[in-house]
Design a protein that fits this description.
By secondary structure, the protein is of the alpha+beta class. The protein is built from 16 helices and 19 strands. A 5-stranded antiparallel sheet has the order 2-1-7-6-3, with helices on both faces. A 5-stranded antiparallel sheet has the order 9-8-12-11-10, with helices on both faces. Helix 11 runs antiparallel to helix 12, helix 13 packs across helix 15 and helix 15 runs antiparallel to helix 16. The longest helix is centred in the middle third of the chain and has 55 residues.
């Protein structure tokens, strides 16, 4: 219960106040202020305000600057000055800071000039040492009954914690900025392409020199869509979206990068790319760090090596198959020749050396010629393969009437066609002249005819020759069993025979040689076929030029 004003000189002190109790204990009669019963109303009114607020306040009163302070200010003393400070003269209480605060208080007392200080360092002695303490405070004049300044009211807040927190934050920001600059320096000097993209639109905030060199353009400050076309960036946008939205890194090996070069031509590079999220303090992704390695050269080298290895395996397989087929095909005529010679020898032995009948000699000679011719064709095919593989297939170009070539070739095959029962129909113009190698064109037709007689004996053969704007189109059709779609590409490869060797002879080189001769002329060969509907070979040849 508050004391009555007319009976208690400390009527303004609230009950339970620590500093109020301390003030009651001070022997004020021994101070410059004298007994409290004589204190002026201006002082007791100001003290009433000071002791009844929860905001830290301090009062210097009179010429001696006698001190008062409230409970809210008490914690700022720490240990050392309290409780002696109550009723003590200001210069005696604050010798270590009087050079700082004394002039300010003097301005208030002598000139009624208030002052304001924000986050001011006021280091004073507390807790056994001088501490750096920060304050936000104001000095205001308190007027006495005579209208002159009688005291200085201090309204203050200790801001040490706030200031130190700001200092730590500023230091952390400086260190962060330094670290960022160092990281950016490392980033910009990295020997591999690197970039940083921010936000859902993937805006480039950093890109080092290797990255700019790789993509051939400046990108910083631009979004992905502004820096690249959809064709260029379409493969990468979903990857960046996924990393930004999920925070999960993505790594892609040998990704295609299609960019125009200085010549304006689009070139494909191959890159290993790693996209990694970078986050804010809460862990939320802010953007994506891209780390890129141009692997075009090593990837192409590896792929070429893999292709060469595959070709080598194919070549080894073809060699083994060739040796197997060639040994079989060469052995067949040799066996026939050997049997003919052995038969003739036994016949001569039985006849005691008498000459063989002329008709017997003629059959023997025909058999030998047939075997030698077959061997010669096999050897010539093998030589052609060697020339084709080594790039030594030479053409002796001259004006060639393709109509004559077709007629002459079919005339030479007339006996064989008759023997197997195959009828030939030729639909030819009067003349069709090309600059070509006559012998090689005859070889093309010979191989097509041999293929038809071998695989489709007894079926009709039709040849249609047409002059085109580019040169000539020859359609060679046999009414045989046809070729399944899955086998149509194979027939032009080396050693390909769609019927087992026990059923037909040959090395399986005829159509391969046809294709390579036609290609050497600058033409093309293809086929149209369905099982049961025969096979049509389409040979296109250019007019050619005088060598």
């Amino acid at each position: 219960m508050r004391a009555e004003r007319n009976t208690d000189p400390f009527w303004f002190v609230p009950e339970g106040s620590e500093t109020g109790a301390l003030m009651r204990a001070v022997d004020w009669a021994r101070t410059a202020l004298g007994p409290p019963e004589r204190w002026p109303l201006s002082l007791t009114t100001t003290l009433g305000i000071l002791f009844n607020t929860r905001h830290p306040m301090f009062l210097f009163w009179g010429p001696e600057l006698v001190q008062f302070y409230n409970d809210a200010f008490r914690p700022s003393f720490g240990e050392g000055k309290h409780p002696r400070a109550m009723g003590q003269r200001g210069p005696e209480c604050w010798p270590e800071i009087w050079d700082l605060i004394g002039p300010q208080i003097r301005d208030v007392m002598e000139r009624a000039q208030p002052c304001w200080n924000e986050n001011q360092l006021v280091p004073f002695f507390r807790n056994g040492r001088i501490e750096d303490i920060y304050w936000t405070y104001s000095y205001s004049p308190v007027f006495g009954e005579d209208g002159r300044v009688a005291g200085t009211l201090v309204v203050c807040t200790e801001t040490t914690g706030t200031v130190l927190a700001h200092q730590r934050l500023a230091q952390a920001q400086r260190e962060t900025e330094l670290a960022r600059e160092e990281l950016q320096g490392v980033f910009m000097q990295a020997p591999i392409p690197m970039c940083i993209l921010t936000g859902p639109e993937h805006v480039f905030t950093l890109a080092n020199a290797p990255y700019v060199q790789l993509v051939g353009r400046e990108v910083v400050g631009k979004s992905l869509g502004e820096a690249f076309t959809e064709q260029e960036a379409g493969f990468y946008r979903p990857l960046l979206d996924r990393v930004f939205q999920t925070g999960t890194p993505v790594v892609v090996r040998e990704a295609p990068l299609l960019l125009p070069g200085p010549d304006g031509v689009v070139h494909e590079r191959l890159i290993d790319v790693g996209y990694h999220p970078y986050r804010d303090g809460s862990g939320k992704p802010l953007g994506v760090l891209g780390v890129i390695q141009d692997v075009t050269a090593p990837t192409r080298a590896r792929r070429e090596m893999e292709a060469l290895t595959g070709e080598l395996r194919s070549a080894v397989h073809a060699r083994d198959e060739f040796l197997s087929i060639a040994s079989h095909e060469l052995r067949t005529p040799l066996t026939g020749l050997k049997l003919q010679v052995q038969t003739a020898r036994r016949t001569l032995a039985r006849q005691g050396g008498a000459p063989l009948p002329p008709e017997r000699v003629e059959r023997l000679v025909e058999a030998v010629e047939h075997g030698l011719g077959r061997m010669a064709r096999l050897v010539e095919d093998m030589l052609d393969i060697s020339r084709i593989q080594s790039g030594r297939l030479q053409l002796q170009r001259e004006p060639v009437d393709l109509v004559h070539v077709v007629r002459d070739t079919f005339e030479r095959f007339s006996v064989q066609l008759a023997e197997v029962g195959s009828a030939a129909t030729l639909q030819l113009p009067q003349s069709l002249v090309l600059w070509a190698d006559r012998m090689r064109l005859e070889q093309v037709l010979t191989n097509l005819l041999t293929n038809a007689v071998r695989y489709a004996p007894g079926v009709a053969i039709t040849v249609d020759l047409e002059e085109t704007e580019q040169g000539a189109l020859l359609r060679f059709h046999d009414a045989g069993p046809g070729i399944a779609l899955e086998n149509q590409e194979r027939v032009f490869e080396r050693f390909e025979r769609l019927i087992p060797a026990s059923h037909v002879s040959g090395l399986g080189l005829g159509l391969y040689i046809v294709r390579e001769i036609v290609r050497a002329h600058g033409g093309s060969v293809g086929l149209q076929s369905e099982p049961g509907d025969g096979t049509r070979f389409l040979v296109q040849l250019p007019r050619g030029e005088r060598p």
